[in-house]
Amino acid sequence: MSDSTSSGAPVTASGSAAVAPAHGSNVPLATVGLVLGILLSVLDQTVVAIALPDITADIGGGDSFSWVVTAYVLASTATGTLYGRISDRFGRRGVFIAAVVLFSVASLLCGIAQSMPQLIAARVLQGIGAGALFVIPTVALSELYPAHLRGKVQGLTGAVFAIASVGGPLAGGALTDGAGWRWIFYINIPLGLVSIALCAYALRLPKAAASEPVDLAGSALLMGAVVSLLLVTEWGGREYAWGSGQVLGLIALCLLLAAAFVWWEGRARNPLLPLRLFTNPALRVALPATAVVGMLLYGSIVFMPTFLQAAYDMSATQAGLALNPYFIPFVVISAVAGGKAGASGRFKPYLLTGAGLLTVAFLLLSLLDLGSPYALVAVEMALLGLGFGLLMQNLVVVSQNAAAPPDLAATTAANLSIRGLGMAIGVALFGNLLAREVAGGPGGPEATAAAIPEVFTWGVPLALLLAALIALLPRPDKAGHRTAPAEPAPTPEAA
Length: 495
Fold this sequence. Notes:
- The chain is mainly alpha-helical.
- The protein folds into two domains: 27-214 and 281-480, MFS general substrate transporter like domains (Growth Hormone, Chain: A); 217-271, no CATH class.
- It has 19 helices and two strands.
- It has helices at 27-46, 52-59, 67-90, 92-111, 116-144, 150-178, 183-186, 188-202, 216-235, 245-265, 281-301, 304-312, 316-322, 324-344, 348-365, 374-402, 408-438, 445-456, 459-471, and strands at 206-207, 491-492.
- It has a two-stranded antiparallel ribbon.
- It is globular, with a radius of gyration of 22 Å.
- The two termini are 31 Å apart.
- 56% of the residues are buried.
């Protein structure tokens, strides 16, 4: 027997979509439009890190500058899962275009901000738009292409993620040095317009005929829990003591909201995050592993430029260029490994190798000092790039392959949102550890850079935890593939 996926392709007994063209989409142009959205969403997570000194020198607010990064990641993480469900009901194209419009308008507001509070508020709005710009393309690309190409396509998105994540500091440095920090936001506007035009013209995917309500209550509970958790990691031990009423109150609030979310999702008519996903043995491992990958990724990307600038007296542009040993292996291995793993169906060896490389890389990074030669740092960054390239999108594909077709959007959104949460926690946690390392010391960029290797020490146990989780992944034939239940006939999106 066969049924329909959300893209109208027949489903085999394994739950995989057979080869079938998308409904009237111009696949190459739609792919470019969607990938531009991914590029924009990820670029703005890292592009500002290297421009923060110039931003604070211009508009002040040095005591709250970290919120320029945290506010964006927090808002995009908190809304990502909701966008997956909204696009199930209202269609991928319309929701994606609306989100790009919001992101572009918010980018303009960031560029014209005259104070730190204005910039942080605009970054929150930008993050709300960005919540859709990675989730929806990742789902839509899996519907545009047949299942046997899913690993290769997600490898492409992994390469784009690598370009944006590691290339962000380079782009930010070049724009900051050449045109001023405001252009790191203005550049989003023409790119956003191109993405909107391409998707409006070329993207045609079906949307469900059913009109189930969006789980707004579940979304509010989840957002509250995420915000509370991030505030704990941001403020604990730095703004407030760990035993203070503020931090303990936030921990209690996070636990209460998380429990209420689980209770509600078990009763909601159309849950934001169906609890049945966690009955799948592959997803029970892949989702927490994804969170750890996010923590390690942004724990390294955000702080490496600072180390390079102080240790080797580099400018912002030079530090961005010095990240190429991280960036190039990340891009290449993401593009290659996704196709190889997808063709063989054996993801676990690639994932274990990636976790092993990260363990070695963080151990070596923890031994650095300000006198270490750059060539040594370059080799260690290359190990990071190779490790993340093997892990990032392969974990997404493992999750997608384990999900039944009706749960594809929810599973993808959960995976990407959990990774975003891990990124935000990684930035906050590593930043917190760094602040404690330099507290009471002489201060200055050199002292900060000298403390960064000590912070990287904490990446070693996290990488070992990641390897242990991946070792628990079931065999591919036990990953939870299921035949899709019968669904109402999909309704193509209007031209």
